[in-house]
Description:
Layout: H1 2-35, H2 43-54, H3 58-92, H4 97-146, H5 159-164, H6 170-209
Amino acid sequence: MADAMRTSEAALVAMRSRSGRSLDSFCTLLSVGRDCGTTVPGEAEVRRRFDRIDRVDVSALAADAFVLAGSHHGLASLAVSIPGRSVSLRQAWPQVGDAVGRAVTAHGDRVDADLIVLRDWAEATVAAASGIEQLLTTWYRAVDKVGEPLVCGVPAHGAAEAIRTGVVSPSLLADDIAARVTLFDTAADATDDGIAEMLRVLVTATDDLAGGAPQAPPDNGSGYLALAGDE
């Protein structure tokens, strides 16, 4: 599990680094489109949406899942030894054997209950981490897509010159940038909402396991919980 986590995290870090460059290219296209009279969002807003999603720390959630799984394994090892210890105690203390047996049995029952909670908690955390990782992977791929060369292999920084020389028509530029803006906005909304839902389900599930009442996410106007410094 640990090796898989490290491999997955390394792949996500690589995608994140690449998408940062793609975002720069996309912002250059927006600037070109704006200069040509195309209605596009401001660069500050685009970068704000990117940075907001980019701050989500799925590696921390995956690490929590790893710790929970380890705790489950340790407690399971303890549970296996309880029946044998019960027999040993009965033999060593025959005068109070029944009382000892009842106490050990009750302890074993509590351990079994805790095992179920830890297992379900770990599984819920693993599922949330995996789901959020998939959302981030799709998001970074979408950012790569919107930052690809404009048309006919013309890179973003050469778009203005391509229009001036007639290689690319202004209308084709406008349509291309509009499509990219739509993709960016749609992907950002889907990622934002998807992370919000997965964290909501995780919070509800873990609160139920702990015996507490589910807590509503904070009303920060974002649509999802602050997982990693979303202030």
